[in-house]
Design goal:
Length: 271
């Protein structure tokens, strides 16, 4: 049974954040050469951070962003993370993530966060993005998921794009095997649309979400972009499917342009 209420906004404690940061500094920051830029673009007041998802459950870019935000503004600068309910309700994720400010990804939770004047962080691509094939590592893969746009429009908050390159190179996802996931009905039972076939060290060839492995010490570049605001906001704008699609295309287009540029920089730096 989950120890923490996955919908509570008061689970985060300074002590848990301090422990989390020490772990990031000791492991992630030392293992992955990195750079985090663009923090000056973060607006005051409520906003929705939107990131491209990488590296399955490891997500080192998320930790690097978390550390950079804390260094810049302390605990008040940290957004609430919106996480998959299936992950958050189970140990050890419940005990690890809830005390540092992660809550269930749900519209009502996000609106309560914004009402407090705080920020939230979401990865709209979820499993599609985080377990995309290695050949697509430099692509933003959100599918047709646009709930984050509807949320930002309804709440009238800006979207702050967070783009990272390099984190998805910690292992090789040969294929996401969406057809197999559909056959196994993983979406119904686990809300998963993929069953990745992965090559990693020292596990070798693995089917399904990975058990602990040793990530490749790849260089990771994280960039916070300028806030994106929309001409129309409110419930009516959020219910306009054509407008939502246009807003999503704008956000994803900007994020893809940033990812392409960062990926090119990594390639040039490796030569």
């Amino acid at each position: 049974m989950a120890r923490y209420d996955v919908d509570a906004l008061d689970n985060r404690t300074p002590e848990a954040v301090a422990r989390y940061l020490r772990l990031i500094e000791a492991v992630v920051m030392r293992w992955h050469p990195h750079r985090v830029t663009g923090l000056e673009h973060i607006p005051k007041g409520p906003a929705l951070f939107v990131g491209n998802h990488n590296a399955g459950l490891w997500t080192p870019d998320s930790y690097l962003l978390y550390q950079a935000l804390y260094r810049a503004g302390g605990i008040d600068a940290l957004p609430y993370g919106l996480a998959h309910e299936v992950i958050l309700r189970n140990s050890p994720f419940n005990e690890i993530l809830c005390p540092v400010g992660v809550v269930r990804a749900h519209r009502d939770n996000a609106l309560r966060i914004f009402a407090r004047g705080d920020k939230a962080l979401v990865y709209p691509g979820g499993d599609l993005d985080g377990m995309r094939p290695f050949r697509r590592r430099n692509e933003v893969v959100f599918g047709n998921r646009r709930g984050y746009i509807r949320l930002a429009l309804e709440a009238g908050v800006p979207i702050v794009p967070v783009v990272s390159a390099g984190a998805h190179a910690i292992y090789i996802v040969l294929d996401d095997l969406q057809g197999l996931a559909n056959t196994l009905r993983l979406d119904r039972f686990f809300r998963l649309k993929v069953m990745p076939l992965t090559l990693s060290f020292p596990l070798g060839l693995t089917l399904g979400p990975l058990f602990p492995f040793i990530p490749w010490p790849t260089r990771i570049l994280v960039e916070v972009g300028e806030p994106i605001t929309f001409a129309r906001t409110g419930p009516e704008a959020a219910a306009d499917e054509a407008y939502v699609a246009a807003c999503a295309a704008e956000v994803q287009g900007r994020m893809q342009a940033a990812l392409t540029r960062l990926a090119d920089e990594r390639r040039m730096g490796a030569r």
